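Memo to structure team: turn this sequence into structure tokens by end of day. - J.P.
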Amino acid sequence: MEVTAEPVLYQKLLLWEPSLELEEEEEEISEPLVPDPWRSQDSYGKGGVRPGAWAQLVATLLLLVVGFSLATWQLHTRGSSTETSGPVAPRPSGHSHRPGIYHHGAIISPAATCSHLGQELLVAGGNVVDAGIGAALCLAVVHPHATGLGAMFWGLFHNGSSGNSTALTSGPVQTLAPGLGMPSALPTLRLLHTRFGRLPWPRLLVGPTTLAQEGFLVDMPLARALAAQGTKGLCPLLCHTDGSPLGLGARATNPKLADVLRRAALAPTPEFAKDALLSPLARDLGLDVSSAEPTPTLEPALQLPLAQGILFTTPSPSAGPELLTLLETALQSKGARPDPCLLPQKATVTPMSSVLATVDSSGSVLLLTSSLNSSFGSRHLSPSTGILLSNLVAKSAISTWSCPLILRASLDDTEADVLGLVASGTPEVARVTTHTLLSHLAGLQAQAQHQHQAQQGPTESPNMCGQGTVLQVAAHAEHAHVSSVPNGCCPFQGF
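Reply from structure team:
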């Protein structure tokens, strides 16, 4: 039977599918991929083997071996920086996209290194949960002023296939000692991975462990935090030998943290916090933590039906309930909508937090936010673990920094648009997120009145209230979109 080469058609990347090919950013392939080299282009009929057939068969096999070797070498040289295991696509051609639009998946975070690491995990066949956790652990290494293994995490995961949204919390605030919060990042992220991840857990820790062991370059956010806060309690981790803070571009290492990550990678279950982290911390502090154990949870997200779809956010303790109240007030009011930015402030101190977001073209979204409460947390550096403990205690204003939000246009339509928003850097995160969402909904209404603009996709909010950052991700028209307000604040990667 004659076998003919057929063009390879793209299909939407589902949450559980492996990556199909590595693309150049911001471009779409409109030509068929090269024919499968393993499919013979010549075949013989049923009636015997013609003369010389065996010689031709051997020659064909040799050509295939050579071709496969060349393809493997090309894959290795082109994909060594991303560790992809999929085939390499030919040179893209066809129409191009503006920055931030990708065919399969994307990630945005405060650090370019961590956004790139998340992209590597997506290309390697991971889903948005794998990419988000890997990037979060990376931020725990390179941004110790805002997050870390001593931080608390909140998250919101939306499954684009089922339409379900799940909220992640670190559990009730617990303390190891007065002013020192209990580390809960590892068991919290491991619980999320156990439930929704795809790649093996150790794979997610390879990049962060390497950064901690071999070193990372101090970027602008960390350099600014060190310049503003000083180095008290941070030496020798983030200091020169003379005690001065590391500056932009300096290399920092944290081998003790690398050891913790290696032990965590070997843990077979999420119940590993004591062996990997709590026991060494207890020795450092001279404490008995035999009964201490973080209690992270996964629970259904809060929901609010809207005319434009259904909104999901995190339950208390977080700013989620406050967000829903603000939105209901704004959307139900007659006439002009009240501007959430004009409401009186509740907090006078800006907490330090870190956010990231991942999305794929099937509509699956993960939003993660974490905090040490203050810049560099308690400034207590554990010598055995290389971890900065938080100063999050029971009276800390958690609701001032935790407020992820997801809006899905329709639960019945598996290809419906999905929008994710997560904010940081402001004491009024619920108001910031509300303002951004209302601006987005107003943009949708304007698009409905001007159908010729409908293909432009999600629009960025032109401004926001307060000083802070909003990360925005969306699945629209079978593409993944990433952006931020203010524009350009956070590096993004996709494929």
